[in-house]
Amino acid sequence: MKKRPVWPKSKLLRHGPELPLEERIARYQHNIRAIRRSGCQVPSVMPDTLDKQAIAAWFAASAETSRRLRVLIRQLAALDPETTIPLAPVPPAKKEPKR
C-alpha cells in the first residue's frame, strides 16, 4: 500500500514582503524543493518553478494585486453609506475532483 504524502509544514520558510527580494526568492525555491521531496503537489496558486525571474514576476504580480485591493477597499470605505453598488452575477466556481 502506497504511503500518502504529508505536507512538509515544518520545513517551509516564510517568504514575506518584509524580506529582501533575493532572500524571498531563495526561501521560495527552498519551499518548492521541500514540497516536491515530500511527494505533495505544489498548490496551483504557486508557480511550480525554481526560475528566479518567474518567481520574482509572481511576487511582483501578487504585490500589485494587493495594492489594487487596498486602493479599492479605501475607495469603498470612503463612499457615502447610502451608496448602492451594483454587482455583476458571478458564475459558480468549478469544483475540483477529489483525489
Please, could you describe this protein's structure?
The protein has 99 residues and is mainly α. It has a domain of 55 residues. The longest helix is centred in the middle third of the chain and has 27 residues. The radius of gyration is 19 Å and the shape is extended. It starts with 20 loop residues before the first helix and ends in a 21-residue tail after the last helix.
Q: Indicate the proportion of strand residues.
A: under 5%
Query: Helix fraction?
Result: 40-55%
Tally of strands: 0
Instruction: Tell me the major beta sheet.
Output: none
Structure classification: mainly alpha
C-alpha Rg, in Å?
19 Å
Task: Estimate the global geometry from the Cα principal axes.
Answer: extended
What's the assembly state of these chains? single chain
Q: How many DSSP helices?
A: 2
**Secondary-structure element pattern, one letter each:** HH
Q: For the terminal residues, how far apart are their CA atoms?
A: 16 Å
- Regions with pLDDT < 50 over 5+ consecutive residues? none
Mean pLDDT: 92
